[in-house]
Amino acid sequence: MAKKQGVQDGASTATKIWVTLLILFGLAIIGAFTAAVITLFNGAGGGYGANVAVIPVEGVLVANDDGSFGSGVAASDTLLEDIRKAEGESSIKAVIFRINSPGGSAVASDEVATAIRRMQKPSVAVIREVGASGAYWVASATDHVVANPMSVTGSIGVLGSYLSFGRFLEHWNVTYNQLISGEMKDVGTPFRELTPQERLFLQQKLDAIHEYFLQSVAENRNMSAEQVRPLADGRFFLGSEAKENGLVDQLGGEEEALDWINATIKAEPVTVVYEHRRSLLDVLTSLSAQRSLTPAAALQAMQEESVPMAR
């Protein structure tokens, strides 16, 4: 009798599991259908009746988002895809870049700014809180820059600083065994001090990137390099100060940007925001794919993947 009761309990449990799975599967289908409907009428594919695309540039600028940075990044791969999409949509007549970013990778900043400069459709940047360094580089490439008077913008400079543990290791009698082929191969390793030659080498690279940044801003803003250079010492400006120095065109926000678009395309602007929501599967996949940052892996990542930050 007890055995029969055990069999019944097991069958009941299995039934409950299958019912739960079917319910979850049904909810997933409903969720996917709802998301598709929302995307159809107001999503990344172009909103119903929309003629202005809004592309958010929020968070640190990186070349690509593999999920290891969390959600607070603006990946140039994604932004370039959005720009191509806006250019390809015949219904989209202008693009707003909604910027709230402190900058980031010089490569990512240049890629996005170059793509914006090549756009055939009118573009406007809106700096609400922060549009500094690489993010300002991106903003400067648009046809019109609007900034809140109290926003942080400018900061035309390049940052390549890092922590050095050479003296700390010496104090604790830890030896860094240098095994390289090529005397500059491990330049920038945090496990020893820079030599004067290495410091000069790295500074020259940063100066070259800074000059490229400066020249790009000058070209984007229709200014001479001589006009931009006094503003390109890395300092940031309030939006009101940036307006006085010619780094932005107008003070305000998205409403002012829409007014400018209205006057430019001669039509009432209707916006659609290009949004990219990461699914649960994306999050789980990125977590499982992340590397363990052991000291050896951290050194390898620094040597192979790090790039100067436009800040």
Tags for this model:
311 residues; alpha/beta; 2-enoyl-CoA Hydratase, Chain A, domain 1; eight-stranded mixed β-sheet; two-stranded parallel ribbon; 12 strands
Describe the 3D structure.
The chain has 311 residues and is an alpha/beta fold. It has one domain (47-310): 2-enoyl-CoA Hydratase, Chain A, domain 1 (Alpha-Beta Complex). Helices cover 47% and strands 16% of the residues. The chain contains 11 helices and 12 strands. The chain has helices at residues 2-42, 76-88, 106-117, 134-140, 166-171, 196-220, 225-228, 239-244, 254-265, 280-289, 295-305; strands at 52-58, 60-62, 73-75, 94-101, 104-105, 123-132, 144-147, 152-154, 236-238, 250-251, 271-273, 309-310. The strands form 3 sheets. Strands 1, 4, 6, 7, 8, 9, 10 and 11 form an 8-stranded mixed beta sheet that branches. A two-stranded parallel sheet has the order 2-3. The chain has a two-stranded antiparallel sheet with strand order 5-12. Strand 6 (123-132), helix 4 and strand 7 (144-147) form a beta-alpha-beta unit. The longest helix is centred in the first third of the chain and has 41 residues, at 2-42. It is flat and about 70 Å long. The N and C termini lie far apart (76 Å). Mean pLDDT is 82; it is low at 32-46 and 279-307.
The residue fraction in helices comes out at 40-55%
Mean pLDDT: 82
Ends distance: 76 Å
CATH class: Alpha Beta
Q: What is the number of E strands?
A: 12
Number of helices: 11
Q: Give the CATH architecture.
A: Alpha-Beta Complex
Q: Main sheet?
A: 8 strands, mixed
CATH topology: 2-enoyl-CoA Hydratase, Chain A, domain 1
Low-confidence stretches: 32-46, 279-307
Rg estimate, integer Å: 25 Å
